[in-house]
Structures are given as C-alpha cells and as structure tokens.
DNA sequence: AAAGCGGGGCT
DNA sequence: AGCCCAGCTTT
C-alpha cells in the first residue's frame, strides 16, 4: 500500500494564503449582480449555468434580461421552450437553456419552487454537475462547499503545485488538495471560493498572468520555480467546418427567422453567412439537423417546417 | 479519460 | 490562426 501523497505540501502556509486572498478579494472583487445580497438563489443558479464556458462580459446582458422576464423557477418552468431558446440568444451551448428549464420544472415539482441549498439535491438537477452544485450551495446559501472551476484549478496548480497549468481533466488529487485548502470558518470559506476564482479570472490568468499584481506571488510555487512554461500543449479546438459550426448556424437562422420551411432551411443557413466559405455536404447537413431534432433544440411542424420546439 | 457541444474576442 | 472561457453529458 503506497503512502498517499499529501494534499498540501507542509511548506505551504495555508493561513497565510487565506489572508492574502481574502484581503485582496475585499478590495478587488468585481461588482457582479449575482454577488449582490439582494440576488435570490435563482439568480445565482441562472448565472452559474450561463457562465459554464462563457465569459462574464457576454453573460451580463442576457442574465439581466432573463431575471427580469423569468424572476422565479416557476416562471421559467411555465414558459414556451421556443421563448427560452430565443432568449438564450448567442450564449452558446443552447442545450444549457433546455436543461435550465428542465431544472426549473424539477425545482417546482420536487422543491416547491425554491432552489435547494443541498449540494446533492442540486447535483440531481439537469445540467448541474459537481462544480455548479458546489457553487450554488456556496454562493447562494453560504454553505462551506469546495468550489473548483478552471480558475481555481489554475491558481492552485501554480501557487501550491508549482505547475504552469493544470491537466486536461479534474483529478481526485486536485479535489483533495482544494478541499484541504478550505478555511474552516463558513464565512471565510465562501469568500475563499469566490476570491480564488476572482484571482484566477483577473490576475492569475491562463495566458499572461499579472504576477506583479498577485497577492500570492511571494508564496507561489510556480513563481519560485522561475515560472516555467506549460509542459502539455493544449488540445486545439477546431471550429471552421465542424458540426458545431453548422449546428450553431442552424440555430441562429431559426432564431432570426422563427419558422423556416423545411426545403428552405439549408439555403437560409448558407445565406446567413455564419458558415464563412464552408458549405456542409449532404451527410454533414443531415447529421446536424437530425442531431438538433434529437436533442430537442429543433422541431418540425405538421407542414415540415423547422422551428424551435414549443 | 476522451469526445462532443457555441460563440466571440483577444493574442 | 490559435487559444481561452464560473462545465456537463455521454461513451
């Protein structure tokens, strides 16, 4: 039986990290609406879903419109799905919009219309994984959950692990380390979660970190090692000519035109210009449309015309 | 563990 | 032309 690797090296002064991050956060935290004391848990939940793989600046206007239109889970649960997909606009990954509505319906049915505080109950909702469950529980309800997103992973990988970037996927060892770094006091735990994320978003960024402005620079294992470059080259994300581009163009066309005749959809999509020079072949076109129908993102009416599902 | 899934802005 | 972003689900 091998000796388990210690989650945090003994050389790391954990209380000092806490003070540094909490002091920095108290001064530099952005004034985001879902952090307001007036923001209900539903607003936090909506923000977390929208922020999955989508930057804050793009989420802000959609979030405000969303909360104004559907101020409670019951409001979203009762909305036509077509309206939900249209309001999602161009945030990307529109399946998130479907799942958010499914989650709202589950909240109405299983939780009396109130967003649950328990991470397990949150995790059981559609579209809510390990991160989002912990984030809502911590940020909306102040429970001392361990919140680990891409920002937290990067800050810990550098400051404690001495690595330039974390690996491709979140490991159990990383979760253990993040858990070991949590402050005991619940209020400080909540601020730590938000503060480390904010530090990763504003200072300890992926591409060109501003170490001269970082409150952890003196204690950072990566800086101490001379800030070596990342060992693992990132996996490139292809876009032009992919199914994702074609699916996105179809969604954009339906969003803009509403209902599109079945034999005209392809022409509308190509004319939309979102595909650039790419022209999908028959096989790709059929695959993408069939996929959107199967995903519940697209529907056909009795005349065979395409539209968002009602 | 890896692949699929959107879209835009920045280097 | 890449790379990145408050991930989740399925294989």
Automatic annotation (TrEMBL):
Gene Ontology BP terms: base-excision repair; mismatch repair
The HhH-GPD domain extends over 50-202
Q: Name the Gene Ontology molecular function terms of this record.
A: 4 iron, 4 sulfur cluster binding; 8-oxo-7,8-dihydroguanine DNA N-glycosylase activity; adenine/guanine mispair binding; metal ion binding; oxidized purine DNA binding; purine-specific mismatch base pair DNA N-glycosylase activity
SUPFAM superfamilies in the record, alphabetically? Answer: DNA-glycosylase (SSF48150)
Please name the CDD domains in this protein's record: ENDO3c
Can the keyword Iron-sulfur be found in this entry's annotation? Answer: yes
Q: Could you tell me the keywords of this UniProt record?
A: 4Fe-4S, DNA damage, DNA repair, Glycosidase, Hydrolase, Iron, Iron-sulfur, Metal-binding
Q: Name one Pfam family in it.
A: HHH
Q: What class of enzyme is it?
A: hydrolase
The domain of life for this entry's organism is Bacteria
Q: Signal sequence: where?
A: none
Catalytic reactions of this protein: Hydrolyzes free adenine bases from 7,8-dihydro-8-oxoguanine:adenine mismatched double-stranded DNA, leaving an apurinic site
Q: Which cofactors does the annotated protein need, by name?
A: [4Fe-4S] cluster
EC number(s) on record? 3.2.2.31
This protein's record includes keyword Secreted? no
Q: Tell me the PROSITE patterns matching this sequence.
A: ENDONUCLEASE_III_1, ENDONUCLEASE_III_2
Family that this chain belongs to: Belongs to the Nth/MutY family.
Q: Which PANTHER family match?
A: ADENINE DNA GLYCOSYLASE
Name this protein carries in UniProt? Adenine DNA glycosylase
Q: Which organism is it from?
A: Micrococcus endophyticus
């Amino acid at each position: 039986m091998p000796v388990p690797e210690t989650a945090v090296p003994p050389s790391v002064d954990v209380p000092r990290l806490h003070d540094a991050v909490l002091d920095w956060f108290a001064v530099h935290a952005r004034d985001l609406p879902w952090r307001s004391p007036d923001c209900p848990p539903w607003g936090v939940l909506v923000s977390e879903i929208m922020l999955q793989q989508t930057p804050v600046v793009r989420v802000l206007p959609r979030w405000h419109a969303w909360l104004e239109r559907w101020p409670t889970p019951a409001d979203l649960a009762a909305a036509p799905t077509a309206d939900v997909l249209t309001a999602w606009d161009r945030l990307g990954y529109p399946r998130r919009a479907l799942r958010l509505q499914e989650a709202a319906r589950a909240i109405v049915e299983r939780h009396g219309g109130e967003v649950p505080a328990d991470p397990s109950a949150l995790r059981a909702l559609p579209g809510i994984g390990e991160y989002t469950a912990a984030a809502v529980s911590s940020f909306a309800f102040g429970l001392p959950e361990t919140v680990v997103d891409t920002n937290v992973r990067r800050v810990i990988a550098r400051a404690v692990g001495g690595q330039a970037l974390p690996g491709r996927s979140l490991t159990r060892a990383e979760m253990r380390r993040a858990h070991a770094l949590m402050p005991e006091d619940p209020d400080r735990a909540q601020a730590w979660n938000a503060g480390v994320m904010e530090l990763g978003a504003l200072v300890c960024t992926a591409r060109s970190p501003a170490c001269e402005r970082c409150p952890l620079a003196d204690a950072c294992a990566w800086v101490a090692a001379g800030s070596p470059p990342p060992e693992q080259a990132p996996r490139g994300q292809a876009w032009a000519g992919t199914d994702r581009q074609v699916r996105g163009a179809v969604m954009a066309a339906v969003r803009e035109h509403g209902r599109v005749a079945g034999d005209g959809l392809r022409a509308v999509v190509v004319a939309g210009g979102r595909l650039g020079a790419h022209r999908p072949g028959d096989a790709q076109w059929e695959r993408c449309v069939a996929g959107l129908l199967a995903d519940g993102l697209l529907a056909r009416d009795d005349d065979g015309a395409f539209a968002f599902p009602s």
